[in-house]
Each structure stands twice: as structure tokens, then as C-alpha cells.
């Protein structure tokens, strides 16, 4: 038996085709969506992700606005780029690519983003709304994970979900999303302080691994038929390595691979957030 692949690449493509029509409708009404990105430094991974986001924009019909700053950019220069995008009417939504180079205050920068232009759902008042269960732009990776599971009819209601990793972009907001009444999953949030990870994952219907530890989830840790989503990525000498060992497909019911899984879904949800923000302008 071999797991069904949760194909994020194909699903993202279908979502982008739907979005293209919504963008055309917006443009017909005089609203041109524009995504801004603030990228600081020369990390190859970050550059590759940001390039992918702008490629998606071109496919969907969203205008691209780039602010690429050097690795020596100061806190003040980063904050000035944010202020510029807040003021720029052509920019209807934007992101600050994380992580920023060492020594910069990420939380301060996120706090300066105009909440109405927050395409990542990481601005503190929008994250606060998620906690308070009010409507707000949702963080892209968690939203992409929920969307991918829904499109493959993997049931969430009542499901036992183990999330590995407590980061601000994935694990922590994913726990909040999955425990909303609309999803109604039971979530266990595991992290480096978890005493016996396998004990948790072995009972899970769904495992989301976003720890950034290559091969962390092995097949003996997975319940037969469970869904396993690989969200971790580590750059090794042999290329990119995910958190999930390849032979997990022998026991799992569904596997979301990395690459080709949640990454493209994250980008598709960014496009959705930009289109939704532009649609809100029409009222
Ligand atoms: N403010 C902010 N928002 C983010 O959404 C954000 C961020 N910072 N910092 C880093 C993480 C990581 N992330 C990815 C997006 C797409 C792929 C992606 O498309 N991956 C392709 C492969 C692309 C490649 O090979 O470079 C795939 O999985 O198939 C991966 C990772 C967004 N992040």
C-alpha cells in the first residue's frame, strides 16, 4: 500500500486559475491588486521564495512591487520601506520576508504594517484577531494546510492533529486555525521540549511536521492511514531535505511531500489574501 499524494503544486495551480478570474473582475471595476515584498539580505532561500511569489503574481494578474534591501540595511531603512508601502496606493497588500538578518527587530517591523495591507496575517493586531476569533487575513502556511486537507477530503472535524513546531509562521497559528469551530480538530502542539514525540504522533490522524529537522518523522511514528504533511525544509549538501522520512509513504494514508506540497499552497494563499484585501476595497 502506498499513500495518496496531497499534491500542493497541482492544487495551487487550480487555485491560481480561479484567482485569475477574480483579478480580472477587480480590474474591470478599476481596482488593480498589487503585492509588495520587502526582502532584506542575500539568503538564497529567501530570494527563491520571493521570486516564486512574484512569478505567481504575474500568472494571476497581480502587479509586483519589490523592495530589495542589502544585508547591511539598518532597522530604520527597513522601517522606511514599510512606511513607503503603507503610503503607496499601488500596493494593496504586502509582506516582509522573514527571517530578517540577525540583529533586526522583526516584531517591531511586523507591528508597523498597515493591518489592512497585511498579506501574511502576521501583523500583531491581525494575529490577535485570530486568537479572539474575529475575521482577519489568515497566515498563509496554516491556511494553505487547511485548504489542502479540505480539497482532498481529509476530515478535520474531531481529528487528532499533532503539529510539530511552535513557530510564528506555521505551528502556533496553525493550532489556532484548526481549533476554530469551523475546523473542530483537536490539536497537540509539540516542540523541542516535548518529552516523547513518537508517543504523540503514533496516535494522530494528521501529523504536520514543521520543525526543520531532516527525517524527524519516521514510519514507526505514524499510525497506518494517517495524513502526514511535510512543512520542514533544510538545505543540506545533498539539496533540500524535509522533516518526513521518505518511507513514511508505506504506512501513511496521505502524504504531502516537500517540495511540491505546502510550499506552493503557501504562495497560493498569499495570492488569495491579496485578492481578498483588494475585494474589501470595493466594499
Ligand atoms: N513573511 C513571510 N511569509 C512567508 O510566507 C514566509 C516567510 N516570511 N519566510 C519563509 C517562509 C517559507 N515560505 C515558503 C514559501 C514557498 C515555498 C515554495 O514554494 N516551495 C516550493 C519549492 C521552491 C524552491 O525550491 O525554492 C515547493 O515546496 O515545492 C517554500 C517556502 C514562505 N515563508
Distinct ligands, ions and cofactors found in the model: 5,10-Methenyltetrahydrofolate
Give the helix/strand class. alpha/beta
Report Rg.
19 Å
Tally the helices.
9
Strand order of the largest sheet: 1-11-8-7-5-6
Range of helix content: 25-40%
Overall tally of domains: 2
The CATH architecture classification of the largest domain is: 3-Layer(aba) Sandwich
Under the CATH scheme, which class of the largest domain? Alpha Beta
* % residues in beta strands: 15-25%
Q: What is the N-to-C succession of helices and strands?
A: EHEHEHEHHHEHEHEEEEEH
Could you name the ranges where pLDDT drops below 50 across 5 or more consecutive residues?
Answer: none
CATH superfamily of the largest domain, by name, is NAD(P)-binding Rossmann-like Domain
Instruction: Find the CATH topology of the largest domain.
Output: Rossmann fold
Using the alpha-carbon principal axes, give the shape. globular
Terminal Cα span: 50 Å
Per DSSP E runs of 2 or more residues, the count of β-strands stands at 11
Q: Average pLDDT, to the nearest integer?
A: 97
Main sheet record: 6 strands, parallel
Amino acid at each position: 500500500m502506498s499513500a495518496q499524494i496531497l499534491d500542493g503544486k497541482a492544487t495551487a495551480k487550480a487555485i491560481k486559475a480561479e484567482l485569475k478570474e477574480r483579478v480580472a473582475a477587480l480590474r474591470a471595476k478599476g481596482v488593480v491588486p498589487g503585492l509588495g515584498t520587502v526582502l532584506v539580505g542575500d539568503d538564497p532561500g529567501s530570494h527563491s521564495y520571493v521570486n516564486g511569489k512574484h512569478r505567481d503574481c504575474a500568472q494571476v494578474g497581480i502587479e509586483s512591487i519589490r523592495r530589495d534591501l542589502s544585508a547591511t540595511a539598518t532597522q530604520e531603512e527597513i522601517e522606511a520601506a514599510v512606511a513607503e508601502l503603507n503610503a503607496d496606493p499601488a500596493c494593496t497588500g504586502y509582506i516582509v520576508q522573514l527571517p530578517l538578518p540577525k540583529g533586526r527587530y522583526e516584531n517591531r517591523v511586523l507591528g508597523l504594517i498597515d493591518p489592512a495591507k497585511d498579506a501574511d496575517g502576521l501583523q500583531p493586531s491581525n494575529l490577535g484577531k485570530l486568537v479572539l476569533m474575529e475575521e482577519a487575513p489568515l497566515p498563509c502556511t496554516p491556511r494553505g494546510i487547511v485548504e489542502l486537507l479540505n480539497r482532498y477530503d481529509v476530515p478535520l472535524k474531531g481529528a487528532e492533529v499533532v503539529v510539530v513546531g511552535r513557530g510564528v509562521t506555521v505551528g502556533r497559528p496553525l493550532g489556532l486555525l484548526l481549533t476554530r469551530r469551523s475546523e473542530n480538530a483537536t490539536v497537540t502542539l509539540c516542540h523541542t521540549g516535548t518529552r516523547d514525540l513518537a508517543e504523540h504522533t503514533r496516535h494522530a490522524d494528521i501529523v504536520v511536521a514543521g520543525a526543520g529537522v531532516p527525517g524527524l518523522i519516521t514510519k514507526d511514528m505514524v499510525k497506518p492511514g494517517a495524513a502526514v504533511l511535510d512543512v520542514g525544509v533544510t538545505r543540506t549538501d545533498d539539496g533540500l531535505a524535509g522533516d518526513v522520512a521518505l518511507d513514511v509513504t508505506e504506512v501513511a494514508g496521505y502524504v504531502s511531500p516537500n517540495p511540491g506540497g505546502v510550499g506552493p499552497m503557501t504562495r497560493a494563499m498569499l495570492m488569495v489574501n491579496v485578492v481578498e484585501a483588494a475585494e474589501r476595497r470595493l466594499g
